Amino acid sequence: MRKFLYILPIVAMFLGFASCSSDDEVIRHTLTVNVQLPSELQTKASETQPASLYVTAFNTSTSQSSVAPVNGNSAALELIPGTYNITVSGELESYNINGVKTGVDVFSNKSVTIDLIATVPSTLVFKEVYFSGVNAYYFQDAFYEIYNNTDEVQYLDGVIMGIVDFGFAPSSSDKSLNSVWMADGKYIDGKYPLTSHVQCFPGSGQEYPIQPRTSIVVAANPMNHTARVLAEGDDPSPVDLTNADWQLYVDLTGFITDTKFEGVPNMTNIWKTWGREMMPATDGQPIILAKLPAGVDPVAYAADASSVAPVPGGTNNCFMIPVDCVLDAIDIVNADPADHVKRIEAKDDAGMTWVSGANGGSGSYTGKSLRRKVAGFTIDGKAILKDTNNSTNDFVTGGSTPTPGVIPTTVD
Q1: Which SS3 state, helix, strand or coil, does residue 371 take?
Q2: Torsion angle of the four alpha carbons 133, 290, 319, 282, in this order, in degrees rounded to the nearest 10
Q3: For residue 294, with 0-12 CB atoms within 10 Å meaning exposed, 13-18 middle and 19 or more buried, which class applies?
């Protein structure tokens, strides 16, 4: 994810035609996308042409992607008729450039406009997230791994971790529909709605350092899940979390009990509505890391009634956090292309990612995690994780075997 800096205009013109010289030929439309950088970056562009700038069109029916490089100020793709999610991604010196527009119907010649966004690297990022669980319905082995993707010491104090609400309309649970909290790809009130549990790291500022190019693991239950006793039909868990650095213990006295593991520090639960574990749905749900402005205590912020709001048109409450406070975000979706609907703003994640396979293809109970790719290494051999503000590009496609606390030693 990248911290938001500029919104850049892009004029996309679809100069398409359908050619068919015989009944056996497939109709295609030529999509031409013209790109124009804003005045703020014109000087940089004249000195350094944006590197690796591509337009990608993802067909939501076939799951096939078409990619074309930007040459000069334009790119062209030949597409079969269908509905597409379109992204533009690239780099310019210290900036990443991204733009996204979802649900674009390409059945005739048409034009669309996409706002590109220039961003700079985040300090703390999700290195890996494991939430899919294993059969039968075992998901107590979830974990989050946070990485300091800089060459300077960072601090976890006050950093918030939360799960973004799907934004279902009242009496609906259709993940193929847009979030009721959003309009034109942005949150109406400028705040992300978080659901289930919201946790933060304790500390007053510099009590919990995370060293350069290192990570910490936050476990739902810091135990060896590979050792659990299996019933007939159960699958073994792939993770041993006995070396986790933090735990997500929640005091649920009188409802459903959570297990507290002695010797592992607790994150601070600042808000909750339901559930025992703080984790996304097993088939995927967006997550964020955030940090409130200096001097704002997360516990005090959560206690303020204005930090909570009901779902538009409904009664269920969500914890609201300003979009400008986001450090990192992953727009995790169901593997089904029909459910590839944006619930993270493009400035925080221009793409989407998912765990594929199993359970009808949804990704649930696959035993797979989402791991961020390695882009390269420092002179002293420490990993530089890929962070282009586009999770489609930044994470291992389809998920992989979880590796909590293990930093890869090769470039992906």
Answers
A1: strand
A2: -10
A3: exposed
Domain 2-121 belongs in CATH node 1.25.40? no
Q: Which two tokens stand for residue 83?
A: 């509905």
Query: What is the Cα 183 distance to its own chain's centre?
Result: 19
Q: What is the pLDDT of residues 3-51, one digit of tens each?
A: 544 444 444 444 444 444 444 578 998 888 777 665 566 555 555 555 5
The domain limits of the chain are 2-121, 124-394
pLDDT tens for each residue of 188-218: 999 999 998 999 999 999 999 999 999 999 9
Q: Which two tokens stand for residue 210?
A: 């995370």
Nearest to 58 by CA among 100, 121, 111: 100
pTM of the model: 0.87
Q: DSSP states of 65-106 as a string?
A: EEEEE-BTTEEEEEE-SEEEEEEEEEEETTEEEEEEEEEEEE
The two tokens of residue 396 are 């291992």
* CA gap 330, 348 in Å, rounded: 8
Closest alpha carbon to 14 in 78, 91, 59 = 78
Residue 163's identity, in one-letter code, is: I
State how far the Cα of 166 lies from the Cα of 247, in Å rounded to an integer. Answer: 25
- Residues 365 and 282: their CA atoms lie apart, in Å, by 7
The residue behind tokens 């279902």 is: 168
Q: The dihedral of CA 244, 402, 128, 150: what is its sign?
A: positive
Work out whether the CA dihedral 259, 262, 266, 270 comes out positive or negative: positive
Please name every residue paired with 68 in a beta bridge, in sequence order, or none if there are none. 55
Chain centroid to CA 108? 32
Bridge partners of 154, per DSSP, are 210
